[in-house]
Amino acid sequence: MPKNGTAIYLRCYPEDHWEMLSHRRALEDLADRSGLARPILYLDNGTRSTECAPRLEHLLADIAAGWVDTVLIPGTWVFALCPETARATADRLRAAGAHLVEMASPRSRAVLQAV
């Protein structure tokens, strides 16, 4: 794994047979448009936000080791349904040394286009 890499983090409950393919492709496209390295996927599929998320913990370890410096997410909701818990997890990734990039929602894109 290259140092200073890009990662995608996704979590879904209940388990998604397609492994959040549409989210993954949108985030891969975002990485490509942004000139980032091809992202490595960390997927906690079938994991409740209240349970231990092994791939999230692996991602945090890779950030701390310097292997990942940018994490792409569809939104902080991917960490937890509770906004405070989701923010706390996002803060953990930032504190470990990652730049967190949240994909713009269709609603926020519509607002930006209207301005």
UniProtKB/TrEMBL annotation:
> From which organism does this entry originate?
Kitasatospora phosalacinea
Q: What is this protein called in UniProt?
A: Uncharacterized protein
